[in-house]
Amino acid sequence: MISQLQRRSMVVKRLKVFQIESIVRGYITGSAWSSYQENGTVCGRGLPPGLQESEKLQQPLWTPCTKAEVGGKDENISPAEAARIVGQAYADQIEQLSLELYKEANTYAAERAAAFGVLKDWLVKNGMKGKEMVEMPDDVALKSIDRYKRAYRSIVGKGWDAAEEAAA
Fold it and tell me: Which stretches make up the SAICAR synthetase/ADE2 N-terminal domain (predicted)?
């Protein structure tokens, strides 16, 4: 019986999904770059002046966003706004888990992609199991080609798309 279930079954957990998502950014690119150009901040957090597009950040940055309805657009929010939506205790746990996951995934990418492997950013969807426990759904770790990019010396100041075109 067990042999019939192997590779055909999965463990399913019911989670209450939080109404925020987390993006951990290792590089100043995309909507973070746009925000930084406008006011020197990303999700309400000030960054050093003089950063160039796609430059590596000194530390990964947790950037929560709203969870839009299907077809809608998520909006970046500050950590304080995330705490208002889900509560400070949950926001703190979500931030910590998201940063830990990003760091592990970035190390994994770097070890397997020679010297050029980097993790640009990482989307984390969070759920809650029980009353106190924040849990990451299993699909959070699925490989997403959009999140993995090859880095080249010429990338800083040009954006990720320019590096991909140069590599083609």
Answer: 2-112
Which of 95, 99, 93 minimizes the C-alpha distance to 128?
Answer: 93
**What is the reported pTM?**
0.70
| pLDDT tens-digit profile, the chain (168 residues) | 677 777 777 777 777 788 898 889 988 988 999 999 999 999 999 999 999 998 989 999 999 999 878 788 889 999 999 999 999 999 999 999 889 888 887 777 777 654 445 556 666 565 555 555 565 555 444 444 344 444 434 445 666 565 555 444
Q: Are 54 and 160 in contact (CB under 8 A)?
A: yes
